């Protein structure tokens, strides 16, 4: 697959060949859903906490005598039946993360990139630079029709570009090592610099295009 390379001024700067093993797969919705769920669960804080009857601050005195009142028997007021008592089976701090094999995560990333390529929502930049001014970058984005985009650069981000882009809503900038399925899918356009494409090609240099399965024989 070939795509045109453009500059921030929306001028053509050549072409680049995208590997089919990375950008030419048939996207699997189930795999993308699993990966998004994995990411969202992994980033949950899990700090929710409710006090049980051993943690609430109430008197430990017996409410009233055991017999002769005509009512139910009760001990102290820490039980869930009383107002101010502890929560029965309340939430406790825990990790919500689930397991997902490393190879499956890598495959999901390739499917996310392929989904963007198939939808024609990939823009290739020669480099992400600039003078560090948000106004100038907004004008450049208007020429490129970028209103909602994830921009992936090489291993090192250009400081002026990051400074200018951080004030623009719906624009995310990440180094190539931070590329992930959730951020790719949540933005309309995926912008890759040449450095990012080279890094992805090196990362998935051993990846292969899966062969089509043969139909069931009668």
Write the layout of secondary structure elements.
Layout: E1 2-6, E2 12-17, H1 20-23, H2 29-42, H3 102-118, E3 122-125, H4 134-144, E4 149-153, H5 159-165, E5 171-175, H6 181-186, E6 189-193, H7 194-203
Parallel strand pairs: 1-3, 3-6, 4-5, 4-6
Antiparallel strand pairs: 1-2
Q: What would your notes on this structure say?
A:
The protein has 218 residues and is of the alpha/beta class. The protein folds into two domains: 2-43 and 99-203, Ribosomal protein L4/L1 (Ribosomal Protein L4, Chain: A); 45-95, no CATH class. It is built from seven helices and six strands; from the N terminus they run ββαααβαβαβαβα. It has helices spanning 20-23, 29-42, 102-118, 134-144, 159-165, 181-186, 194-203; strands spanning 2-6, 12-17, 122-125, 149-153, 171-175, 189-193. A six-stranded mixed β-sheet has the order 2-1-3-6-4-5. The longest helix is centred in the middle third of the chain and has 17 residues, at 102-118.
Quick synopsis:
The chain has 218 residues and is an alpha/beta fold. Helix content is 32%, strand content 14%.
- Structural class, from secondary structure content? alpha/beta
CATH superfamily of the largest domain: Ribosomal protein L4/L1
| H/E element order | EEHHHEHEHEHEH
Tally of structural domains: 2
CATH-defined architecture of the largest domain: 3-Layer(aba) Sandwich
Average pLDDT number: 91
Number of helices: 7
CATH topology of the largest domain: Ribosomal Protein L4, Chain: A
* Sheet with most strands: strand arrangement: 2-1-3-6-4-5
The top-level CATH class of the largest domain is Alpha Beta
């Amino acid at each position: 697959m070939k795509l045109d390379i453009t500059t921030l001024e929306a001028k053509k700067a050549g072409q680049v060949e995208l590997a089919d093993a990375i950008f030419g797969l048939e996207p699997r919705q189930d795999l993308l859903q699993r990966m998004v769920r994995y990411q969202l669960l992994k980033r949950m804080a899990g700090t929710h906490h409710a006090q049980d009857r051993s943690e609430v601050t109430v008197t430990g005195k017996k409410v009233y005598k055991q017999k002769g009142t005509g009512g139910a028997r009760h001990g102290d007021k820490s039980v869930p039946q009383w107002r101010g008592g502890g929560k029965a089976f309340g939430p406790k701090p825990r990790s919500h993360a689930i397991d997902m094999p490393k190879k499956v995560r890598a495959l999901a990333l390739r499917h996310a990139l392929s989904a963007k390529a198939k939808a024609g929502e990939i823009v290739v930049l020669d480099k992400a630079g600039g003078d560090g001014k948000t106004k100038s970058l907004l004008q450049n984005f208007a020429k490129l029709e970028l209103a909602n985009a994830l921009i992936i650069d090489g291993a090192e981000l250009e400081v002026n570009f990051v400074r200018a882009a951080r004030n623009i809503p719906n624009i995310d900038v990440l180094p190539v090592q931070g590329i992930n399925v959730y951020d790719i899918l949540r933005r309309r356009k995926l912008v890759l610099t040449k450095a990012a494409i080279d890094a992805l090609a090196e990362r998935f240099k051993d990846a292969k295009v899966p062969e089509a399965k043969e139909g069931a024989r009668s």
